[in-house]
Amino acid sequence: MVDPTTVQRGLESVVALESRICFIDGKEGRLIYQGYDIRDLAASSTFDEVAYLLWYGRLPTATQLDDLRHRFRELRTLPPELAAQIDQLPADANPMDMLRTSVSTLALFEPGETKPGASSIGGAQRLTAVLPTILGQFHRRRAKLPPIAARPDLSSAAYLLYALLDREPTELETRALDVCLILHADHELNASTFAARVTASTLSDLYSSITSAIGTLKGPLHGGANERVMELLDEIGTVDRVEEVVKAKLSAHERIMGFGHRVYKVEDPRATILREWARRIGESKGNLRYYDLLRAVEQVVHREKGLYPNVDLYSGAVYTQLGIPPDLFTPLFASSRVSGWTAHVLEEYEDLRLIRPTAKYVGATDLAYVPTGQRG
After folding, report:
1. What are the residue ranges of CATH 1.10.580.10 in the chain?
2. Which fold has domain 22-220+328-350?
3. Does 261 participate in catalysis according to the annotation?
4. Residue 118 pLDDT greater than 70, yes or no
């Protein structure tokens, strides 16, 4: 029996449920999706294949993967009413607000997926397929680009880049984004995933659960750290200023984003993989400035604070070198994590129990009621 007087702030180290989807070994620096190490998946798999793995608990056959890719391409198109709504939103709207509103609106056009407890895999596929279109539609409108074309010939990663860049991505660019999508697809009971499962545990629908997750991801303590990393690099400017700027911030007790993690006690394995991709993309562009800056920042922070990089340290550099605007970093994260969010919601429906923790009350208990006219 858990001692009700013991408060675990932030629910740190509290085991809330059982799951087959994702395992983090914080001591060894391992991340496992449905039994498969993230290093192997990032080296050999694709995001479409990983989405299938998260939902079904097994890797797809060639036929199953082809079927899923075909299904994704069919599901990319937005309802005309939603496309019109996105075009009517303020061009300077926060992209996460736009994404949250659009997912909630999309539910109105898919009533079969919004029944209480509806657990069709179709909803998971639809959301994973359509988030890149929503982002592309919004970005292209504000950038005064023509409406996005269907492009059924493109993979999920290539389609997302095409939608944002308005050009054919190179093979290297496509693979870089595909790896990013794989690495961000799931991460156990992070705040947004837990929010999705809490919503699902009330027997609410998949779309409501994902709307909850997007709203949670918008918070700067969960999403957006890679944007702050890029702001730091712009502030530093050149490698010769890294030592001075970083040490000054540490002395002022400012947090250097992209370091440390609640679970990992060693380097985040996703950071290890993204470091190499930041280098590869930089080399392909003939500019290793961001990579060199990050390596220098990494050395100073580790020497001064003993902290290891997390996924956010290098992801922003990869996105920036791919030409993705900073305010789309977190929505792009959502386009990947929606595969994991939906997997967790579907798993929650399998063994439903309302998630309802207890708070330790620390307020008064014996106040006497005073009529309104007698209150001073």
Report:
1. 22-220+328-350
2. Citrate Synthase; domain 1 (1.10.580)
3. yes
4. no
Closest CA to 353 of 214, 205, 209, 202: 202
234 in catalytic set: no
Query: With 70 as the cut, is the pLDDT of residue 220 above it?
Result: yes
The CA distance from 111 to 100, in Å, is 18
pLDDT (tens digit, 9 = 90+) per residue, 157-178?
Answer: 999 999 999 999 999 999 999 9
Whole-angstrom Cα distance, residue 274 to residue 336?
15
Cβ atoms of residues 79 and 109 within 8 Å: yes
For residue 353, is pLDDT > 70?
yes
Domain with CATH 1.10.230.10 in the chain: 225-321
Q: Choosing from 37, 222, 292, 302, which is the catalytic residue? A: 222
pTM over 0.90, yes/no = yes
Among 178, 205, 268, 312, which one carries the catalytic annotation?
312
User: Does the pLDDT of residue 10 top 90, yes or no?
Assistant: no
If you ran DSSP here, which 8-state letter would residue 7 be given?
Answer: -
Greatest Cα pair distance, the chain, in angstroms, is 77
The DSSP call for residue 87 is H
Catalytic residue among 184, 261, 268, 344: 261
Question: Is 87 among the residues known to form the active site?
Answer: no
Whole-number Å distance between alpha carbons of 75 and 69: 10
* CB-count burial class (<10 Å; 0-12, 13-18, 19+) for 222: middle
pLDDT, tens digit (0-9, with 9 covering 90-100), for 270-280? 999 999 999 99
Distances in Å between the Cα of 324 and the Cα atoms of 84, 286, 314, 328 are: 24, 18, 14, 7
CATH class assigned to 225-321? mainly alpha
Mean pLDDT for all residues in the chain: 93
Question: How confident is the model over 55-66, as a mean pLDDT?
Answer: 98
Position 6 confidence tier, pLDDT thresholds 50, 70, 90: confident
CA distance 85 to 72: 22
